[in-house]
Amino acid sequence: MSFHNKCMKNMYAKEFCKEDDKMVEVIKDIAVIGGGPAGLCAGLYAVRAGLSCVLYEKYPLSGGQIINTGEIENYLGIPSADGFSLADVFSRHTQNAGVTIVNKEIVSVKKSDGIFTIGFTDGAEEKFRTVIAATGAVSRHLGVPGEEKLTAKGVSYCAHCDGAFYRGKTAVVIGGGDTALTDALYLSNLCKKVYVVHRRESFRGANLLVNRLMQKENVELVLNSRVTEINGENTVSSVTVESVADGAVTEIKTDGVFIAVGITPVNGLFKNLAEVDDAGFIKAGENCKTSLSGLFAAGDLRTKPLRQIVTAVADGANAVHSAEEYLR
Length: 328
Ligand code: NAP
Fold this sequence. Notes:
Elements: E1 2-4, E2 7-9, E3 15-19, E4 22-26, E5 28-33, H1 37-48, E6 53-56, E7 71-72, E8 81-82, H2 83-96, E9 100-102, E10 106-112, E11 115-120, E12 125-133, E13 137-139, E14 155-156, H3 159-162, E15 170-174, H4 178-188, E16 193-197, H5 207-214, E17 219-222, E18 225-231, E19 238-243, E20 249-253, E21 256-259, E22 263-265, E23 295-297, H6 309-327
Parallel strand pairs: 5-6, 5-12, 6-9, 12-23, 14-21, 15-16, 15-21, 16-17
Antiparallel strand pairs: 1-2, 2-3, 3-4, 7-8, 10-11, 11-12, 13-22, 18-19, 19-20
Helix pairs in contact: 1-2, 1-6, 4-5
Bound molecules: NADP nicotinamide-adenine-dinucleotide phosphate (NAP).
């Protein structure tokens, strides 16, 4: 597509301009990798700062993990929204502001002579002066017998995607963070009975959610307990639960198991470029600067104490601010 009498863009949003009668590649300022709240906000701040930027998101829908999140009530200014709708608002805002979103999967990121080269699945490459890593995180697996075999046959990592299959049935939610609590609340409105199995006495997630859950008559909290096995032949039939206190073993009959035991960073493109912590999150402070100059980490992928939409979008803004300083 021609957008300037001397310049052209290709399908990767790579830009070429005519110089001395030759087409030379224009190296853009920022590649944002990942289209969740952090990446979308980074794109917005980049275009508003007058920087040239392309946002790469491998899926056709931007929004990241929030697409699969139910009710969101803690994003300032939006008292209540479902994750899918909020992701849509973020995405439209960003695109209306002029951010180019390219739905291509990136397979490599390299830095040489101060320039980043990103590679795509089809072998094409594109160059940028800085990269904002915003690939987020995915659900962690529990690692117990039966989990892998029964995934998608009763075992799920997304209550909002699969909950409707358990209408009027029994579900077990495993975990004690915000995800487990919001999943259990969501399922309590669909299921006949919901068990929440958590390995400790107290929850990591918000008290407000715990209190709401305790008011639900069809929810039973199974505390100080671990699920040691997920049972069933073709579909889930029960979970084996072991008491952390005395080792007593019980069985809970259930139709579905929703695993919500935390997240694993999607760091494959960056873990050999910048320092990561023991869990694989890219080490970076509030300014999002990583150990590699020109590479910034934003959102759930970054080491941080609180992973929320509001902290992810703040990272997007901070990462661009740091990138601007670096480019100057
Ligand atoms: P999380 O906060 O890390 O909680 C993971 C939970 O799983 C913890 O309770 C943990 O137990 C338990 N767990 C971990 N490994 C386990 C294992 N092997 N066996 C049994 N239990 C295990 O993860 P999350 O709930 O997915 O939340 C991730 C981030 O997203 C958090 O920052 C959260 O606040 C945020 N989030 C926000 C919202 C919202 O604001 N609407 C919604 C969802 C998530 P311990 O407590 O004993 O460690």
